[in-house]
Amino acid sequence: MATKIRLQRHGRKGYAYYHIVVADSRAPRDGKYIERIGSYNPNTNPATVDLNFERALYWVECGAQPTDTTRNLLSDKGVYLMKHLKGGVKKGAFSDEVAQQKFNAWVAEKDKKTQAFISKKETAKKEDVKKRLEAEKAVNAAKAELVSKKKAEAEAAAKEAEAAAAAAEAPATEAPAEETPAAE
What we know:
- By secondary structure, the protein is an alpha+beta fold.
- Helices cover about 60% and strands about 20% of the residues.
- It has two domains: about 5-95, CATH 3.30.1320.10; about 95-160.
- The protein has helices at about 55-60, 70-75, 80-90, 95-175, and strands at about 5-10, 15-25, 35-40, 50, 65.
- A hairpin with a 2-residue loop joins strand 1 (about 5-10) and strand 2 (about 15-25).
- Helix 3 runs antiparallel to helix 4 (about 95-175).
- The longest helix has about 80 residues, at about 95-175.
- The radius of gyration is 40 Å and the shape is rod-shaped.
């Protein structure tokens, strides 16, 4: 029986996630499988891969053929590196402890790169929020200045209108009495 390690689609339309399964190559994509060895969620950044490492390594060593995407996922998690290192141990190139040390060093380096990516993304997000806040403050300051100008103009116009009304009322109420010429 030819076995495949492949993805089995789940989730809703436009938001898929996948189970990583070992199945007979003749079985349908979402049909019967032999064993589920993990899950893959491409909707997160970075994508989330939950993998039973020992079972995946077992099936790869047994000859199960992964699809292209699952090969990339397994390689990313180090399954193929461990298979390669175990092959070196079988040939006597190095001991099992050295192989484990090499694998642990590779995992530590990979985790370091992943954490750097995540922290870079978080700082970029914080910077973006800071820039948007500064832009919003600038827009608000411009609006406040425009509103204060309009209020000042309205107050000045109101004062001018009051002064003009006062000036118009003042001559009418305080009109000097005309002196009549004296009779001669």
